[in-house]
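Quick one:
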Amino acid sequence: MDFTLEERSRLDFVLALRGRWADTLYPALKSQFQSDTNQADIRAAVHRQPAYPWFAFTERTSQKMLWRGVAEAVSARGPSQHGRSSGPARLVLDPELSLPDWYTDWDIHLQPGGVWRSDESADVYEHGAKLVMLGDNDDYGFHRSFTATAIPDRSYRRIADLGCGFGKSTWPLKRRFPDAEVIGIDLAAPCLRLALDRANAADLAIEFRQADGQATGFADASVDLVTSTMFIHEIPRPALVATLAECVRILAPGGLLRFLDFTRTGDPFRDIAMVEHGERNNEPFMPGLLSADVPALCEANGLCNARWVAFDERGAGRLPDCAWPQRTEWHFPWAVLEAEKAA
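Output:
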């Protein structure tokens, strides 16, 4: 978007504020916590530190400021209409699909109105998804690194990308595996209409399908690779279990599951900060994901060799030694969930 000077100044201020939250308030709070001799209750120990009120307030307030700033900029440009482009991409919407309450009852990420209400909502999500990462994912490098480092190099007939949104996670899959049939799945019709336009503009033959990850509509054993990025922390535990069962059903023997998401690191301060990030930023199901033994859920639903592998979003991608990067600033505990269906 071509932001006005006033709009860009407002967003630059918010990004600077979030930067100081990440690189100044977070280390200060961690240092105070580590100096506390009573850590029997981790959450209570974090909350009693002098920097905590500033850290918590700045996190939620800056998130709200960012999304509202983007929403107002998009609204000022008038109504959007997506999904009318022509090209190699294909769009399949389901007018009978009923969106679940757990999806519509929250303004996820604090984006006003959520991502599913209108084409303007999809525009807000597209621009906000870049800015919310402090500008570090402007070219969707996270998604390209995931595709390049976490997806084994083999021949795939069909790839399903769950929770694809406006397509940022799906484009790298088609670029790396041009001979595969690549299908992006999402609940939000506005995002899928925008995804169609972006894929056609890039001359990418991708199908975007409106469906629930729990019921994709694929035939049994018809998919060789199921992926997602930043998806499973946004669904409740029953939906996660059902989605894993659906992956088992649609994967062909020997098929792979690769999900880029978040997990616990074993650092008590880091982990409680992440749980509270979910609580403060309208990510209601993130704490549940962090408390779950997801590899065990994979195994219980029929997948094998399930595990989390550490991921460094700054370019290294999947870390084969599974060692978490040593960093002082706030950052997401990125990890790749790896599993497969028995051959």
